[in-house]
Write a structure and sequence with these properties.
The protein is α+β, with helices and mostly antiparallel strands. It has helices at about 5, 10-15, 20-35, 35-40, 60-80, and strands at about 40-50, 50-55, 85-90. The chain contains five helices and three strands, in the order ααααββαβ. The protein is globular, with a radius of gyration of 14 Å. The relative contact order is 0.21.
Length: about 110
């Protein structure tokens, strides 16, 4: 996959104060890099001050993603071609509209590692 910074020169730098647009960019980076199954159970809700907040629709997925946090941060930063992401906050939210309804309905219901 091509680095976001190569596709959109200076995008991350120029949008660093435009939170809604930065969230959209990180949402696209997340979906492109975490795999269909993970994307089906998650939804990037915001990016603020170097932290990506991700809603998770199932407890087992939430626990697995917490364990995968360091690898995910590394993978996402590599996809961007720079260290822009400092942390990922995972929020288990069974009461939210399930992100899986907006993603791949054929994705597995069991978490796997990257």
């Amino acid at each position: 996959m091509q680095h976001v910074t190569r596709m959109f020169p200076g995008l991350l730098q120029s949008l660093r104060h435009a939170a809604p647009l930065m969230t959209s960019v990180w949402r696209a980076v997340w979906i492109a890099n975490v795999g269909d199954a993970t994307a089906a159970h998650t939804h990037v809700s915001r990016f603020e001050k170097g932290t990506l907040t991700v809603l998770v629709d199932h407890h087992a997925w939430h626990l697995q993603l917490i364990r995968m946090r360091p690898d995910l941060i590394k993978t996402l930063n590599q996809a961007c071609g720079r260290t822009a992401l400092m942390d990922v906050e995972f929020i288990y939210s069974a009461s939210q509209t399930a992100p899986s309804k907006f993603s791949n309905p054929d994705a597995t219901n069991h978490p796997t590692s990257l």
